[in-house]
């Protein structure tokens, strides 16, 4: 095929005319139209002869004789796709010779922007542009220019590139705008790599010189937004087109990396794949850039330079501990001596407290003493910021490396004022449990002034299984001086009592006797001891509470002794009842529970208590222990008490025949209420009917009696 639009089209036209002459012998007037119709109908290149008119189907046998068509798998196809596209375009032009004008379906579809490339009919569309270019250039150019719009240029610019590259639209004004669109795309950092590569290819096919200049600009004039990865792509594209220029760009890129740390490192590796020397330079550049951070270590590892790696590992500022640790592992494989020297410096400048311990564990297989020195410095970092758990792990490592130093290291950690109590106790316990050493470190914790009393107690209790006497003794000692509250003190003593009751009993007894100790706590302590001391001691403790504790606790203490069926129980309750400052109701209840030991309180309350109902209850209880005094108290209430029902109940509480006399007095007392007099009368009637009738008749005749009461009495008298 010859160059230029006319050359390409003339060649296709020559092929078509040859086929037309071959078919003209049968159909001299319809051969061209027949082929165009077939091309128009054959969307995938397969000729739709069956759907053609009968007259045209008759010609199908001659199709394969002219070289334009071939038979494959029983199907007739165009031998060349471009012939089919050209004939299909001719079919459209024959029907629309004035080009893509108006709103016809053909006009609307022509050169319409698509979302994907290639277009399904891009070959036909290209020939339409070429065939319509002369008769309808303004309309075609207007349509094509739309494809360069920002909204449509991706991917439709590729159609324009194809037209321009094939020179199908000569003398157009679209070449430069298309090149500008492609140049702009090469500097668009938002494009993904695949789309960017497509635009590079398109520009190279359209104008290789401009493409080379732009690729060079991407590499050498990149701003901060263009990463090394994109710039490396530009280098590769340049190398494919102009190796000398590409190598120059490669050298520039190696010395001027941009983008993220990962991107710069990845690009340096790519450069090395293309050129070892330039790749080494690129990696060296990255090692020296501080803002590369951890990737500096990766670059030094890739270079295999122990000196650079050692400098980065020992630097006080720079890569993270994790990156430096990774570098140290690699350095050990490259240069063990340099690595061991760097390890101790790294441990001294590490940011994280656990890093030195990791370093010690890493170098231990290569140098025991270096590992021991690092672990020792970690374990003995005795300040408030030191991590106790890390120190403990360091101590364990010391013991693994040098067993003879295990116990001394554990001792030092247990004595550290800056170690947490949990770690200090764990260290002290390990001396005993793992190394079978003495308990002095644990005892020291239980008595140390800087240790909180609750932690002291935990330390003391930790040896209860192996040294119960020492454990209990320490707890008792802690209870005497440690807890700020009596409740805390009692809690520690309980722990001691469970281990060795003999040592704790005395202190708990003193707690019960303490007058300044809260009554409920004293009672709890006495209850706690009751199962482990004799009855006499228990009663004595409850008696102490009765005499010196608050009223409620005193009563509960007396109740405890009563529940023991001990003879002192009621006596103690009597002492509770004898408290003159307590409320009469409380004293009465205690006196009733005290039995004969409550007599004095009952006597006082029966004559001087308030209200009269309480005097009645006291007198009723008193009469069981002092018949004379109780009767006297009841008779006084019969004579005068409020409400009147108290007089009735007092009368009924008198012994023997005294009840009848007392009720008679109430019935005859004009100062008493009517209800009480009627009630007393009927109660006498129940005991002595004769006297009762006499009292009823007299009461019914009293002028102050209400009609209702009079009617009731008269009714009962008539029965």
3D architecture notes:
With 719 residues, this protein is an all-alpha fold. Among the domains are: 5-177, no CATH class; 178-287, no CATH class; 300-351; 355-438; 656-718, no CATH class. It has 42 helices and two strands. The protein has a two-stranded antiparallel sheet with strand order 1-2. Strand 1 (69-72) and strand 2 form a beta hairpin. The longest helix has 20 residues, at 5-24. The protein is elongated and about 165 Å long.
Quick structural gist:
The protein is mostly helical and 719 residues long. 69% of the residues lie in helices and 1% in strands.
Topology:
Elements: H1 5-24, H2 31-41, H3 54-57, E1 69-72, E2 75-78, H4 81-95, H5 105-109, H6 122-133, H7 137-146, H8 153-166, H9 175-186, H10 193-206, H11 208-220, H12 228-241, H13 243-255, H14 261-274, H15 276-287, H16 295-303, H17 306-314, H18 321-334, H19 336-349, H20 355-363, H21 368-379, H22 388-401, H23 406-415, H24 421-433, H25 440-447, H26 453-461, H27 468-481, H28 486-499, H29 501-513, H30 519-529, H31 535-548, H32 551-563, H33 568-577, H34 584-594, H35 599-608, H36 612-622, H37 627-639, H38 644-653, H39 658-668, H40 674-687, H41 689-700, H42 707-718
Organism: Amycolatopsis iheyensis
Protein name: HEAT repeat domain-containing protein
Let me know the number of strands. 2
Give the helix proportion (percent range).
Answer: 55-70%
Oligomer: single chain
Q: What is the overall number of helices?
A: 42
Query: What's the N-to-C terminus distance?
Result: 152 Å
Shape label: elongated
Please identify the structural class as seen in this structure.
Answer: mainly alpha
Mean pLDDT: 88
Radius of gyration: 58 Å
Low-pLDDT runs of 5+ residues are: 1-5
Order of strands, widest sheet: 1-2
Major sheet: size, sense and barrel closure?
A: 2 strands, antiparallel
- Proportion of beta-strand residues: under 5%
């Amino acid at each position: 095929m010859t160059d230029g639009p006319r050359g390409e089209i003339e060649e296709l036209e020559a092929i078509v005319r040859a086929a037309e002459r071959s078919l003209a012998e049968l159909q001299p007037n319809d051969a061209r139209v027949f082929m165009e119709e077939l091309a128009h109908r054959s969307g995938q290149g397969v000729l739709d002869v069956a759907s053609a008119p009968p007259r045209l189907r008759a010609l199908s046998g001659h199709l394969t004789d002219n070289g334009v068509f071939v038979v494959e798998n029983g199907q007739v196809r165009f031998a060349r796709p471009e012939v089919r596209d050209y004939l299909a375009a001719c079919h459209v032009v024959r029907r629309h010779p004035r080009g893509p004008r108006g709103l016809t379906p053909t006009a609307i579809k022509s050169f319409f922007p698509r979302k994907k490339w290639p277009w399904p009919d891009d070959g036909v569309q290209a020939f339409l542009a070429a065939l319509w270019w002369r008769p309808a250039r303004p309309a075609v150019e207007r349509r094509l220019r739309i494809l360069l719009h920002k909204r449509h240029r991706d991917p439709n610019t590729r159609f324009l590139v194809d037209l321009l590259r094939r020179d199908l639209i000569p003398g157009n004004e679209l070449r430069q705008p298309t090149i500008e669109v492609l140049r702009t795309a090469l500097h668009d950092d938002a494009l993904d790599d695949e789309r960017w590569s497509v635009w590079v290819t398109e520009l190279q096919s359209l104008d290789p010189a401009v493409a080379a200049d732009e690729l060079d600009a991407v590499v050498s004039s990149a701003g901060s937004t263009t990463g090394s990865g994109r710039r490396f792509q530009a280098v590769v594209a340049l190398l494919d087109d102009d190796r000398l220029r590409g190598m120059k760009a490669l050298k520039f890129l190696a010395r001027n990396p941009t983008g993220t740390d990962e991107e710069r490192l990845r690009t340096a590796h790519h450069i090395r794949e293309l050129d070892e020397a330039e790749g080494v330079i690129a990696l060296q550049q990255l090692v020296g850039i501080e803002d590369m951070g951890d990737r500096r270590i990766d670059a030094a590892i890739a270079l295999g330079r122990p000196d650079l790696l050692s400098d980065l590992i020992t630097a006080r500022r720079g890569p993270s501990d994790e990156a430096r640790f990774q570098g140290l592992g690699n350095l050990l494989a490259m240069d063990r001596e340099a690595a061991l020297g760097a390890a101790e410096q790294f441990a001294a400048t590490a940011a994280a407290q656990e890093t030195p311990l990791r370093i010690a564990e890493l170098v231990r297989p290569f140098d025991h003493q270096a590992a021991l020195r690092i672990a020792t410095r970690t374990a003995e970092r005795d300040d408030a910021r030191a991590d106790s758990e890390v120190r403990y792990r360091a101590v364990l490592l010391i013991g693994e490396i040098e067993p003879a130093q295990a116990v001394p290291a554990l001792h030092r950690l247990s004595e550290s004022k800056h170690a947490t109590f949990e770690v200090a106790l764990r260290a002290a316990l390990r001396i005993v449990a793992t190394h079978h050493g003495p308990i002095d470190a644990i005892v020291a914790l239980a008595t140390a002034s800087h240790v909180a009393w609750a932690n002291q107690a935990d330390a003391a209790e930790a040896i209860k299984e192996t040294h119960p006497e020492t454990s209990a003794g320490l707890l008792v000692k802690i209870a005497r001086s440690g807890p700020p509250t009596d409740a805390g003190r009692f809690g520690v003593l309980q722990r001691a009592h469970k281990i060795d009751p003999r040592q704790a009993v005395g202190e708990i007894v003193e707690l019960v006797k303490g007058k300044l100790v809260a009554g409920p706590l004293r009672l709890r302590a006495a209850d706690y001891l009751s199962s482990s001391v004799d009855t006499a001691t228990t009663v004595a403790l409850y008696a102490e509470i009765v005499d010196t504790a608050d009223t409620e606790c005193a009563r509960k203490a007396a109740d405890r002794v009563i529940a023991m069926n001990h003879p002192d129980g009621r006596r103690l309750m009597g002492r509770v009842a004898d408290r003159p400052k307590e409320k009469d109701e409380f004293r009465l209840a205690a006196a009733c529970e005290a039995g004969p030991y409550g007599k004095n309180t009952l006597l006082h309350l029966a004559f001087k208590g308030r209200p009269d109902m309480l005097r009645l209850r006291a007198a009723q209880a008193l009469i069981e222990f002092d018949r004379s005094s109780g009767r006297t108290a009841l008779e006084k209430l019969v004579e005068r008490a409020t409400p009147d029902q108290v007089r009735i109940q007092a009368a009924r509480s008198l012994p023997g025949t005294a009840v009848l006399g007392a009720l008679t007095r109430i019935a005859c007392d004009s100062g008493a209420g009517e209800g009480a007099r009627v009630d007393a009368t009927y109660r006498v009637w129940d005991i002595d009917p004769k006297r009762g009738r006499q009292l009823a008749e007299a009461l019914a005749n009293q002028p102050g009696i209400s009609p209702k009461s009079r009617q009731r009495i008269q009714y009962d008298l008539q029965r």
